[in-house]
Design brief:
Blueprint lengths: L1 E4 L3 H23 L2 E5 L3 H11 L9 E5 L1 E3 L10 H13 L3 E3 L7 H12 L6 E4 L22 E5 L2 H9 L12 E5 L1 H5 L3 E6 L5 H9 L17 E5 L9 H5 L4
Parallel strand pairs: 1-10, 2-3, 2-6, 3-5, 6-9, 9-10
Antiparallel strand pairs: 4-8, 7-8
Helix pairs in contact: 1-2, 2-3
Amino acid sequence: MRIHLSRDADEMSAAAAAHAERALAGAIAARGQARVIGATGNSQLGFLHRLAASTAIDWARVELFHLDEYVGLPADHPASFRRVLHEHFVDRTGIRTFHALDGDSDLEAVRRTVGAALQRAPIDVAFVGIGENAHLAFNDPPADFETTDPYLVVTLDEACRRQQVGEGWFPTLGDVPTRALSMSVRQILTAHEILAIVPDQRKAAAVKAVLTGAITPEVPASILRTHPRTTLYLDAASSSLVDHDVLHNPPA
């Protein structure tokens, strides 16, 4: 794992977007297309806006896969991740192939269809975040580190659901769905490269747990330390609880 430190979220988003631009342009130059996994959430929006503004990428050659989505939430709900990806990324770029997860449909059919498309060829780069409970995608602790299924139907823990209220996506805890479709941990790790974009003080405890503890399902994103081409993008706030030596010499 490599760690990139920035002073604030804007600087971090710009650095991550520049890295992502290089990765996408390189994949297109080498193979004629780029296959990408995209995340949502407040922590990802600055990065997505920066990346969407790139004119160095032939967006028609980018194939985008959806990381996770709530079960039972219609596509027009403000918190729907497929709506967020459309509004903040897909519609801004002109990406033509977006494999969205419809959590308001036949879940097994969605898992089969999108999962088959996902596994049809290698993934060039995955854009992910880390939750306040250290989840990776919607794989809350204890996460399943073993399954090779591309997508899972998971139960969301209370900490995860409270985060969604805190970010303003839902008015109360009772409004947050209790289940979600999530890309599996093992599937995320198959990406050639992973960019984990993690700003804000509210993520500081999770970042510390990811970097200083054991690699364990109780800290799902700790598994990123096993991936040889993961870059963790942090700002001053999200990195504030981690010792200087760890930040500059991240553990394996």
